[in-house]
Design goal:
The structure is a homodimer. Chain A folds into 2 domains: about 90 residues, Ribosomal protein L30/S12 (60s Ribosomal Protein L30, Chain: A); about 150 residues, SPOUT methyltransferase, trefoil knot domain (Alpha/beta knot, 3-Layer(aba) Sandwich). Chain A has 12 helices and 10 strands. In chain A, the strands form 2 sheets. Chain A has a 6-stranded parallel beta sheet. A 4-stranded mixed beta sheet of chain A has the order 1-4-2-3. In chain A, helix 7 runs parallel beside helix 8. Chain A is elongated. The termini of chain A are far apart. Chains A and B meet through helix 7 and helix 12 of A and helix 7 and helix 12 of B.
Chain lengths: ~250, ~250
């Protein structure tokens, strides 16, 4: 049985302001929760007896637990089809340390608005061994339930920092790459093993303020080059292609 | 003023069986409708006076038109936030001709279920000059409103054929590529300028039946190679990276 106060607390975490206030977010489903457990101790878990029988050894004594049936789970879930476990996880934001970025490949998102795109980009970062993502203040919240559910365990392995992106880019001593429709063919450019890859907003691309700080303007060529096609690639697709190309050069 | 019968007709097109019955689908918004108009004559248009003033010269006499206000548009729209124009477009499926595929690069989708992924893959195909997509019978419907809205004008330039995919692959005389977690590094493989690129279901990948017909098993290496990361890339991201690599070799 889940208390009313607890239901209210969980439901409130659907909104960013309450996530910030409580410093917590919701993760659901056995796969996602299972991937997060090795990295972080939940504040709270609501789970079916079945899930608990298999997984309670993974929980610490610090986690409060409610055993629930499907009906109760549906009452607290933020999803349409809740599955056996819901966990409230602590948000542990590490302070951004520019020095640690210096020798790495880093993704910077300038106003990516769709939480699904953000989640997909986290998975891309994780796949390609990119451990740091910088987000402009206008970028979607990584702890939005839609993003959490789509990025799976990547959330535990990739650090996301919200910051004043122009300020950070202005004082970083690394090449800054960005994709532009009038950039130069990425396959003809020298790509460094480290640097910042800036990806822009879904509709408007990279903002003017950030564009000024991009030192290498790239372009993913369409085929045949210069033919009349789709206006642009989806931002997550472009991120995938650019990251794959950076890593191909290093292999 | 839109008649009741017409509202019923439009609303019915949200469902696949009625799209098949009426041989029509719904496209909405000035950008998408504007991109489709040069390729196809709508059966019907509901639009604001503003849109019509600017665009009526693009419509033929064959299109029935209702001038509507925002409130009426909301009543017929399949979207949450309808924008100035809704068009009912004819579905014109061309017969699949295996001979025309022979010298081309073709994408085959084996059970891709999410209409958003399908739409994104159409945009990728369009960007990379891939004009033919084969879909297994279990793949999402390209005329699903969510897919239509996400693939934009690519829908007009890329032909999508639903077919018995194993049967088609079995009789085609081209290399068949597919991505598998145990495939060989795509960057070390010879890639042909033509062939079929098979992409699988979001959760289960390529089906066993289709996997038997894949002649070249590829893998997009993570970084560092063999490290512990996200289980797999989203299917649309993988499609983007594979298509970019095929086209890079040809440039």
């Amino acid at each position: 049985m889940i208390t009313r106060a607890r239901i209210k607390w969980i439901k409130s975490l659907e909104m960013r302001k309450f996530r910030l206030l409580h410093n917590a977010f919701v993760a659901e489903g056995p796969k996602l929760v299972g991937e997060l457990l090795p990295y972080s101790t939940p504040l709270y878990v609501a789970a079916t007896q079945e899930w608990l029988t298999e997984n309670s050894h993974l929980l610490s004594d610090l986690t409060e637990v409610d055993v629930v049936n499907q009906e109760e789970l549906e009452r607290v879930s933020l999803l349409r089809t809740p599955q056996s476990v819901l966990a409230v996880m602590p948000i542990r934001e590490k302070k951004l340390d520019l020095a640690t970025l210096q020798s790495q490949l880093v993704i910077a998102l300038d106003g990516v608005q769709d939480p699904g795109n953000l989640g997909t980009i986290l998975r891309i970062a994780d796949w390609f061994g990119i451990h740091q993502i910088l987000c402009s203040e206008g970028t979607a919240d990584v702890y939005n339930p839609k993003c959490v559910q789509s990025c799976m365990g990547a959330l535990a392995r990739v650090e996301v920092h919200y910051c004043n992106l122009p300020d950070v880019l202005a004082c970083i001593q690394m090449p800054v790459y960005g994709t532009f429709l009038d950039g130069t063919d990425i396959y003809g450019e020298a790509l460094s093993a480290y640097g910042i890859i800036v990806m822009g907003n879904e509709g408007n691309g990279i903002s003017k303020e950030v564009a000024k700080l991009v030192s290498h303007r790239l372009y993913i060529p369409n085929f045949p080059k210069g033919s009349f096609t789709t206006e642009s690639l989806n931002v997550a697709i472009a991120t995938g292609i650019v990251c794959a190309e950076f890593r191909r050069r290093m292999n």
